[in-house]
Amino acid sequence: MGYGMAFSVPLLANRDRRFDIVPDHYRIFNLEPGPASAMDLVVDVPSQDGRFGTFLELIQLLDRYAAQQTVLVVNHGASDANDYPIGLSLPLISGSPWNPDQYTLGLLRDFVGKNPSDSDYAAAESGSSMQSAQGQTIRMAAGTLKPLDTALRSLRAKKLKRVELRACNLGGNSTVMKLLAMVLGVDFIVAPSVHMFYLRLPAAGIRPDTAANFNQWVRNHAPCRTFTDTSSSRRVAIRVNGRHADRTVDIDADDLDVKWFIDNYVCIGSPYVSRPPGRNAFVKPFSFSGMDFNHSFVLAREDDYVGQLVEETP
Asked: Is the CB of residue 108 less than 8 Å from the CB of residue 152?
């Protein structure tokens, strides 16, 4: 875990509805671990204007919240066919097929410290093309780079200190991380070097099992992880299914009280309260974040979660 706390860290999340779980999660479980070299984050979910759908919109939101010094950003990372990280899966501007990757960030980096003219932007755009999956040549549309560079100049003037990205795999590409830090004008940028996820229980919760049925569930759902409370011997078992952004979860518990699990593996000090015993009572739903690790997964309060976070400077 980090060595201190950064308070009131704004959360910015992709606007795609598949990311709706992210602000829901941090409203309840608002402590996000930072890298061992930095502070943990006490996350604040903006009541509005915290979602983005393009890189330009993300830059504008970072500009708006730059006074907080640290911002948490959740978005898909982009990887190539060999699962090597290449950037963010996010259109540069509305309707653009281009994403923030080594090439486009390099274009924007080349404008840093200069005063480019419209013809400079046009020359960079006209010289930029890529091949689609179908082998078609896609050229960068005129008017792509100037609004990005203009927004980035404003952001860099605000001197935002740190961007904490939760974007799959991105931390595994030091070149792209450094380019991002440079064009955003931040001192530090952080991202995981593995794939990660946010998952939650069904809205109704789950019915706790007897000890015997729990043991049978574990056998039937291999490979899963079993978590045990050392003081009460209560147990929770979780199997995460799928890869990358396409995940589901199977979960079982042998008691209604899972507060110990929340405190030890999800978020300490959260307002989550277990449901009291009662006939046909279900475990109160909760969400959690995790990262891939050693052919399994780790959860946010585990040391190996922090161990997958990579910090870079420009």
From this structure: yes
The reply to whether the predicted model has a pTM over 0.85 is yes
Confidence (pLDDT) at 3: 67
* 304 phi and psi angles, rounded to 5 deg: -70, -15
83: left (phi over 0), alpha (psi -120 to 50) or beta: left
Closest alpha carbon to 33 in 314, 298, 313: 298
Could you list the beta-strand ranges (E) of the chain. 5-14, 31-32, 40-44, 51-52, 70-74, 77-79, 85-88, 129-131, 137-139, 162-166, 188-192, 196-200, 225-228, 235-243, 246-253, 287-293, 296-299, 309-312
**Residue 251: phi, psi to the nearest 5?**
-145, 145
Contact at 8 Å (CB) between 40 and 31?
yes
Q: What is the CA radius of gyration of the chain?
A: 21
pLDDT digits (tens, 9 = 90+) for 68-95: 999 999 999 999 999 999 999 999 999 9
Adjacent-strand bridge partners of 77: 88
223: cis peptide before it, omega within 30°? yes
